[in-house]
Design goal:
The protein is α/β, with parallel strands linked by helices. Helix content is about 25%, strand content about 20%.
């Protein structure tokens, strides 16, 4: 086995007390193995599935299939036709907390949306009256719009603004705000990809500070009794549990919600309800997820769609062809 860096060794010791677990975690990053691909059905599943599938987990929604190792769903004609969206099964785990949210749901706001997987999941799971997908990085907008358009996600608006703009102009309006936070991307290593400097304390602290800023701005949008989901694809506690603990100290009107079907994945690094998978679990490269609820009482504020300055909109129901630029 390749020798792990000192920073990776330190992280493994902070995450796991058991030396065997430390070794398995390190091995999963140094000698990455392929994971089972997953697909999210945007349209109804066909009676005869085009791929062989694994047995579902207890938290896996019926509109998601985990395929056998080696399947290439992105090359299937149904993918291009928008029947399904390909995503990492770690993303399914992180987004599975949304299945706890009661319907009906008015507005869903995805703060860090590109390439669109969590937006598609929320749309399919909750069928909101409106989905707003925001991406602050301009060069990532094309992929987001392409995926939402291909999958005919509607009614949907794509916007391109910093989270602080929405905090100012859209207070207390959203039934659900999702923050799939930008992070150091340590789980990329488990996929065999590169993530230079991802274990360095400077990079981790910089990332955690950005995450705190985004989650604080995002909290301003959450309507009374509404929900806020915080997710990452990294391992360091500074970007996960510690961000959540900081958030609850600054926004005491929020509380973490227990997601009973994820009890076995409860993080041992915090007393709040938050959940993790690691690459050695073989379900995906890794994810952290937590569901918060705004305990305040009141009515949601109205949203002025004209003031959003959207870059793309699909405002009809599924099957309609009318999409437009603003």
């Amino acid at each position: 086995m390749e020798k792990p860096s000192n920073l990776l060794l330190k992280l493994s010791r902070r995450l796991f007390e058991n030396p065997d677990k430390q070794e398995k975690f390190i091995d999963s990053l140094i000698n990455p193995q392929p994971f089972n691909p997953a697909i999210l059905w945007c349209q109804n599943k066909p009676d005869i599935l085009p791929f062989p599938v694994e047995l579902p987990t207890n938290w896996q929604p019926d509109f998601v299939d985990r395929l056998l190792l080696g399947e290439k769903p992105g090359k299937h004609p149904l993918h291009q036709q928008g029947y399904f969206y390909c995503l990492d099964f770690s993303s399914v785990f992180a987004a599975s907390v949304l299945l706890t949210i009661p319907q009906p749901v008015g507005l869903v706001f995805d703060m860090c949306a590109s390439p669109g997987g969590k937006s598609v999941f929320a749309w399919k799971a909750l069928q909101p009256d409106l989905l707003i997908s925001n991406e602050v990085i301009g060069k990532r907008l094309g992929m987001l719009i392409s995926n939402l358009k291909r999958c005919d996600i509607s009614p949907c608006t794509v916007v391109n603004r910093d989270s602080s703009i929405f905090a100012e102009n859209m207070p207390l309006c959203s039934d659900l705000v999702m923050v799939d936070a930008p992070c150091t991307g340590q789980s990329l290593l488990a996929k065999g990809e590169k993530a230079p400097g991802c274990f360095h304390p400077t990079a981790i602290n910089r990332s955690a500070n950005r995450q705190k800023r985004i989650i604080a701005n995002s909290a301003q949008l959450v309507a009374p009794q509404g929900y806020l989901v915080y997710m990452t694809c990294t391992y360091s506690a500074e970007e996960n549990e510690q961000v959540c603990e900081w958030f609850l100290s600054k926004f005491p009107q929020f509380q973490a919600v227990r997601v009973s079907y994820l009890d076995e994945y409860q993080s041992h690094l915090s007393n709040i309800f938050c959940y993790r998978i690691f690459p050695q679990d073989r379900l995906g490269a890794g994810a952290f997820t937590v569901l918060f609820q705004n305990t305040e009482v009141g009515k949601p504020q109205e949203v002025d769609l004209d003031a959003l300055s959207g870059v793309w909109m699909n405002k009809n129901h599924r099957g309609a062809e009318n999409t437009e630029n603003f």
